[in-house]
Design a protein that fits this description.
Radius of gyration: 22 Å
Helix content: 10-25%
Order of helices and strands: EHEEHEEHHEEHEEHEHEEEEEHHH
Structural class: alpha+beta
Shape: globular
Number of strands: 15
Number of domains: 1
Distance between the termini: 71 Å
Oligomer: single chain
Largest sheet: 9 strands, mixed
Length: 381
């Protein structure tokens, strides 16, 4: 048994190049430089990933979840990248950094955070998913398929460890509370919550045969921090694979649908989540469609061996083609639902400011019929 290692993935959009499509190379170089300076000190290892206009900091260390020094490093690194974005006049420079100074933990300050602490197994494959132009509820369906759907993950049927089930920790983003549910016996109860992806988010998953963490996703919602729309949450997800956990192929199979998620243009539209290679994770059509990359690593004594560009594979070509077809269909709706988000989500966008322009022109209807069909002459009971 070795000592526990912590894997921290902390991300933010601190400036887009061009528009919302990418991150400027100078910003990335600064982020990589600052993390590299801490290898052998605060950090065991690190790397920087990019999905669209998001910088995703990947760090391994021995300090546990929510450690102030690690979060301070992430905040300082993202702030340094934002300073470059301001100087180079990048779009939305510093937009996800919603505080004037660091206060001990980046949660609640704008960045998204996914962290897990565990003891390395004899072989430790890890997949890190980074998304752009979507909300944290985007992980609900694929995580359900990985860990609770035997039609996606046959290990739930034929693996003696995996078929003992999993414990899902569900976070209520409105009430700020968590609930743990066990599968398979509580799978229907689980689905009553996680099907509502705007409110109930899968935060952690634990394998029941060993009570060890298997997956963790960022559940921070930027609108809850800023009180208005300034950018979509663009979540990150960490999943451990193999040896009683879902196999790599079962994990990636969960992304072959191209399921819809909230986000896309101005954070106000539903769109298909397209699995992309690192090089093609540049959302440009209608600032999208929403994108997800998958970076594969072998963890060895805290060292990150990788990344391998998992979705850079023709096996996902049909999924990408389906996403383009779904994008065509949804775009044809224009500003109408279900392409545009429902009113509760639109409250955090700039739409309310537009609606205020005619708020004084609404007239109340004082003489509404007491019953549908009244005065028409028919019996509608």
């Amino acid at each position: 048994m070795g000592s526990p290692v912590t894997l921290s993935v902390i991300k933010a959009d601190v400036g887009g190049y061009v528009g919302h499509s990418r991150v400027h190379p100078e910003m990335l170089a600064k982020a990589e430089e600052l993390l590299q300076q801490q290898r052998g000190k605060l950090l065991i290892d690190s790397t920087v990933l990019v999905c669209g206009d998001d910088i995703d900091l990947v760090m391994t260390h021995e300090r546990g979840n929510d450690h102030p020094a690690i979060h301070q490093l992430a905040w300082d690194t993202l702030t340094a990248a934002a300073d470059i974005a301001h100087r180079l006049k990048m779009y939305g420079a510093g937009q996800d950094l919603q505080a004037d100074a660091f206060s001990g933990n980046v949660k609640g300050m704008g960045p998204g955070v996914a962290e897990m602490t565990f003891i390395e197994r004899p072989s430790e494959p890890i997949l890190i998913f980074c998304a752009d132009k979507c909300a944290p509820g985007a992980w609900n369906l694929p995580l359900y398929k990985m860990f609770a759907d035997p039609m996606n993950s046959p290990g739930l049927v034929i693996d003696t460890k995996m078929n003992q089930g999993a414990t899902f920790e569900v976070f209520d983003a409105v009430e700020g509370k968590s609930l743990k549910l066990n599968t398979p016996e509580e799978v229907y109860l689980l689905l009553t919550f996680i099907g509502s992806t705007g409110r109930y988010l899968i935060k952690n998953i634990y394998m029941r045969f060993c009570n060890d963490v298997a997956a963790t996703g960022s559940v921070q919602r930027l609108k809850d921090v800023a009180g208005r729309y300034i950018g979509k949450d663009d979540p990150v997800l960490v999943v451990r694979g193999q040896a009683g956990f879902p196999a790599l192929g079962e994990i990636t199979e969960a992304f072959t649908l191209g399921h819809t998620t909230a986000g896309w243009m101005r954070g106000s539209h539903q769109g298909p989540l397209m699995p992309c290679s690192f090089d093609t994770a540049r959302p440009v059509r209608f600032d999208g469609p929403p994108r997800v990359i998958c970076a594969g690593f072998q963890l060895a004594h805290g060292k990150l061996l990788g990344p391998v560009d998992i979705f850079d594979n023709p096996a996902f070509d049909r999924t990408r083609a389906r996403c383009n077809a779904v994008a065509d269909y949804l775009r044809a709706h224009g500003v109408f639902e279900p392409h545009r988000l429902h009113p509760e989500e639109m409250e955090y966008t700039t739409l309310p400011e537009v609606q205020k322009q005619v708020a004084h022109r609404w007239e109340s209807e004082d003489k509404l019929p007491s019953k549908v069909g009244a005065g028409v002459g028919g019996d509608f009971d």
